[in-house]
Amino acid sequence: MARTKEFDPEAALQAALELFWRRGYEATSMSDLVEHLGIGRASIYATFGNKHELYLKALQRYQERLPDLLGELSQPGPVLPAVRALVRRYADEAAAEHLRLNGCFITNTAAELAPHDPAAARQVERNWDHVETVLHSALVRARAQGELPAERDPLTLARMLLVLLQGLKVVGKASPDPARVRDAAEQALALLD
Length: 193
What we know:
This protein is mainly α and 193 residues long. The chain contains eleven helices and no strands. Helix 9 crosses helix 10. The longest helix has 27 residues, at 118-144. The relative contact order is 0.12. The model has no long low-confidence stretch (mean pLDDT 92).
């Protein structure tokens, strides 16, 4: 007869996500995970694999719980107000004391692991490709509706916004000055006029 798990794997994955997000991959040891999750090392390995596999599963969980950008930017009507609201929300989150300390788990992974970890890099790229595609589609629609001048390239604007959104998270995490990220966001949004 198969043994039943003595812990909730979903709750354990969420706890691992929170620990990795706060501390990073390298600064989180298996001992830290055992203590934080409240389960044995063997149970972690049996359920999630090694530390790296657990990290990738936590990163995937984080991505699954991100706001629905497609839903936000595909509503009928004018597009640019929704794009502006998205950028301002990122700036506000990057500047908010209670949100900024952890930063963005994807951005953190890009800085810490992606340069030398192909599996982590693939997950980061997949997220960035999704954000870029959603922004590009929204900006194509904005140009078709006359909200953007015809000479503006929706793809390059989408890429600029992607880099801005990620940069807001990096600067917001490191800087206690909320004006820095908010001013940068507003300056970038001026490019949409």
